[in-house]
Amino acid sequence: MRVTFVYPDFFSYDEEHFMPEGRIYLGIGYLSAYLKREGHHTALLHMVRPPKQEEFEERLAATSPDLVAFSSTTHLFPHVRRWSSWARRRLPGVPLVGGGAHATIDPEDALLSSSLDMVCLGEGEEALAELCAVLQEGRDHRRLPSFWVKDGEGIIRNPVRPLLEDLDSLPFPDRDIFDPEDFCEQQHERGTLMASRGCPYNCSYCSNHAQKRVYPNPEKYVRFRSVDNVMREIHQVIERDKEGRLRYIRFDDDILTLNREWFRELARRYREEVELPFVCNSRANLMDEESARLFAEAGCGVVCMGIESGNAQLRREVLNRPMREEQIIRAFRLCREHGMKTVSTNMTGLPGEGVSELLDTVKLNARARPDCMQVSVFHPYPHTRLHEICLERGLLTGRHVDTIFDGRSALNDPHFRDPAWQLAQRNFHAATELYSRLYDLGAAGERLARLLDRLFASGRRGWKLREGILKRLLSWAGRRQRFEWIHY
């Protein structure tokens, strides 16, 4: 069988402006490697810019596929809707299958709103290989586990197969399927891999808990590869770097330190065998003295941890992230003391977030002092708990955004029309710098920070005067920012 994967890897601001991403997507890499091991042939349309219909159809037809497999997030699924209709027009007899996060958490939408014939729910290596075998033999594919299939006006909803427990049984991702010409500059510098799959936490905004519940064995959702298997892939990635452009290893795992004994062994092996630094994700409530020391000794250069909201009530009751402010500040401090850079991830535009709650996030970053801040706008993913909350409160607008980083919200929350909220949200980095400099002044700075709070206060009274003062202060802070732009 010849399988052509189609993967959108850009985001659009509007019909005329877009931003290419150009990264390795390990999901397709694993699927391609697994299919090749089973004797199939694979190709990839790595779409790093919006194609015209004729261009897309010509590129797809040139691969002579027996099966076209689309993979996409919820943000980028509108492109799959459009492209699947183009594929159906050009290749009317070729089956079209969808997969990825959106197909897993909202399979009915993925199937009924597109020209796809079927969607794969959950991990797809075994499922896609079985589908290829069945299609190759000319047998009926409609009852295969993990697939929902169009059947006339209805849908055949097959149960999802159990999670694969032995990750070492998988081949390493097929990196050859990606054309380096499509990569952004940062992708050439990073060797990307995953040492595990799954996350045990149930943050209400994240699709993890929605994906976890599709499996018959959700208790096996978090799995780790053996350290030896991971190290062999790292060495392979380094050996492939013929041009000497590789600068660091990037672990794309949700949380690398969930299994402490496993991580101790990985840290030891990495320190002994690899000279490149690495970047990874962790979680503030898991970052203690030993973890920070192990990270640093192993060669970790950058740790990414979520703050998400600085407001304790939003963290606890809305996001289901019951972390204390002191835990978060201590985690960033420990990394700093052990010589590692840090990145905080933050969400704005949460349901019920007024200017006071938004400033709590600004101020917690000012106290935690990450080297870099990633600031996004919350987007409700289908069938997550926070999507349900937004639905219950009547906040959903149906507005689509390609990315959480373009500043637009998909919610209709009156808080977001407050000019003070809008000013703080647009100037998040400068506001954090301003509060940080005030906190540097000790008790006097704390008093000045409370005055700054009052300048940001909601309400129209005196706003024009306060806005003018705030804009001058934010402009001053913006020119003196100590935050970095870290590639990770």
Distance between the termini: 36 Å
Task: Tell me which CATH architecture of the largest domain applies here.
Answer: Alpha-Beta Horseshoe
Gyration radius, rounded: 24 Å
Question: Shape, please?
Answer: globular
Total strand segments: 17
Q: Can you tell me the CATH superfamily of the largest domain?
A: tm_1862 like domain
CATH topology of the largest domain: pyruvate-formate lyase- activating enzyme
Helix content: 40-55%
**Mean pLDDT value:** 95
Top-tier CATH class of the largest domain? Alpha Beta
**% residues in beta strands:** 15-25%
Strand order of the largest sheet: 4-1-5-6-7-8-9
Number of domains: 2
Low-confidence stretches: none
